[in-house]
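Researcher: Sequence of Transducin/WD40 repeat-like superfamily protein follows. Predict its structure.
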Amino acid sequence: MNTKMEEEIVIASSSIDGGIGCWDLQTGTEHLRYKSCASPRHGLISVGRRFLASSQLQDPKASSGAILYWSWSRPQVEVKCFPEEPIKLLVANSEGTYLVGGGLFGNIYFWEVATGRLLKKWRAHYRAVTCLVFTEDDSLLVSGSEDGFVRVWPLLMIFDDYQMEQASQLYEHSFQEHTLRVTDIVTGYGGGNAIIISASEDRTCKVWSLSKGILLRNIVFPSIIDSITLDPGEHVFYAGGRDGKIHIAALGADSSSIKSHWLHIIGSLSSHSKNVTCLAYSTNGNVLLSGSEDGMIRVWDPKTHNIVRVFKHAKGPVNNINVLKRPAYLNPRMLSNVQASSRRHGLSLPPPLSKYINTMDEKVISAVVNLQATCNNPLDASSISSQVINCQIKELQQQGSAAAAEMEVEKLKLDCTQSMQMLQRWKKTYDNLHEFCVDELLEGCNVKSAN
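Model: Prediction complete. Tokens:
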């Protein structure tokens, strides 16, 4: 293993109140155990590596639920949030500026982390949302549901009120080939050109093209698949089954044969005594991690198929695993300084998430100029929604993100300037045409009067 493994940690949780376990991936050393956590599947995340967040839904039929925050330096829950409906799963964008929740009634909630504001809520599925994942570039959100649908949501569409009004639906793609509940979704590299892999209780994993919106592969497994993870090279993916095995499926296998779906399964790893509920892949250490209902977390060498290390969760089955670079707060040399700073400055975590959308936040005034149809070419949508562009600039500036976001801000500023210039040109054309028509009308009236 390379030295970068020293910077990675593993966090894991259970469906019963067993807390959140945290281990150093290379050494196996356990860090703090975070208390009072009973999370559903896909309900545990690290928000921008700044703090931990987890949804709480002990009873699947409950009419209420909570979202809890833990700081890295304290084992106790520090912030409690109570959304409008029970949230089954959580996901955050790579910068940790936004938190997205999938609801028990099919809604998706989009919060701003720094303020806790609920920015958007929309009905995404007919039944409970079971999976949520961002694409690598954070431009698309992919959701799966108990209704069997996999849907792709472009965030620019979701936050552009003009486009929302014009569009017949908010999603870019709606994949309907699964016949039962979607259990897991992963995306590859490449943003809008990536692949999506979805798993379902119908015992299939399906590979989709984001750019073309089509099904590329349909792979049938001997067991229901509850979890999947993708090899960084995108040569194979791993599928955790209810038979206790981790099946290995090749993405590039020959699909010309009628029975080609069997040819994709090229091997398996077997050591868990119960269902494999969650999988994760460490790109730095090039190891595969699996969690199971047997309460064990196993670390595998994908080349030799040997077990490198085993972690045991303190209590109950494991249903969530995440691998991330070790936050500075977990560095023993810095821990005392962090705790002292927290005492001096008070709670450093963001405020609780809002339950409802503030009606004032919904009022975005669009700069729209209604022009006469003076030519056959309609106005470009960017010129009609210049206010939306300004809002995007403001949001990006508030994020305080890195160079890539700053470049995007500059591009949006240029687009906004060009849009306003186009508006001015159209207005001038309209004014000139109006003046010409008035002059012609007056001149015609003068000629008639003279005759």
